Amino acid sequence: MGSRPRRPARSSPLYSWVAALLRDEIEAGRLDPHGSVPSERALSERYKVSRMTARHALETLAREGYVYRSARRGTFVAEPRLRFSVGSFTRVMSDADSTPGTEVLAATTLDPDPVMATVLGIPSGGRVHLLQRLRTAKGEPVAIENIHLSAARFPDLLEHDLTGSLWELLRARYDVHPVRADARVVAVTLDRFEAEALGVVPGSVAIVLSRTVFDTEGGVVELARDVYRGDRAEFSVSAPVDDGPG
């Protein structure tokens, strides 16, 4: 039998140590999704900590989305987060073997604000399409997309089926080929509308991805603000390493 894990330095709270050990087990696949997590009593005995410390560790993992708790049944391992990159939701979900789904929440044409008009190249008096969609994976709400496109460039866009890949539609119908996206990622808390759409409580943590998508000619195709559930999504990023001081 292996030795018991070494305790952290005194400056590190014990609950954080216990949470880290459980987090490692979950990420390594030693605890299966929807499988039971040891009870507060079991954790207390295993790691020689108080029940309060064990409870705080489980609460930490629940806030982070690693576990979910049932008042009557106990604590269970949550589904692993879906890994996204900045690209087509449909393609990413298909590559991950998660069936993508779409519900159109709004599809309308509006007057753009001056900044949006400039970025999208919309002349004075021009308008923009707003497409708001709820994206799901295996039937579970994952993200809300808010996409703006030039109404002059894509005049009949809203007349088409908008539940599939938007980028595939742009390629097939308008011969516009999205090839690059600049993005900014920030953490936010969800308002009531977004929380209800995503099936979580208001104030839950979310990841907002603001995208500017470019075509092969370097023109801006769309401006988007995508809101992802913080407990179900993570983003992978690849970038050159700065050769300056570490």
List keywords for this structure.
246 residues; alpha+beta; Chorismate lyase; six-stranded antiparallel beta sheet; 7 helices
Task: Note down, in words, how this protein is organized.
The chain has 246 residues and is α+β, with helices and mostly antiparallel strands. The chain has 7 helices and 10 strands. Helix content is 27%, strand content 32%. Helix 2 crosses helix 3. The protein is elongated.
What helical percentage do the residues reach?
Answer: 25-40%
The N- to C-terminal Cα distance equals 40 Å
Compute the number of structural domains.
2
- The total count of helices amounts to 7
Q: If strands are numbered along the chain, what order do they take across the biggest sheet?
A: 4-5-6-9-8-7
Q: Globular, elongated, flat, extended or rod-shaped: what is the shape?
A: elongated
CATH topology of the largest domain: Chorismate lyase
> For this structure, what is the CATH class of the largest domain?
Alpha Beta
Largest sheet report: 6 strands, antiparallel
| SSE topology string | HHHEEEHEHEEHEHEEE
CATH level 4 superfamily of the largest domain:
Chorismate lyase-like
Protein structure class: alpha+beta
By oligomeric state, this entry counts as single chain
Let me know the average pLDDT: 86
Rg value: 22 Å
- Quickly give the CATH architecture of the largest domain: 3-Layer(aba) Sandwich
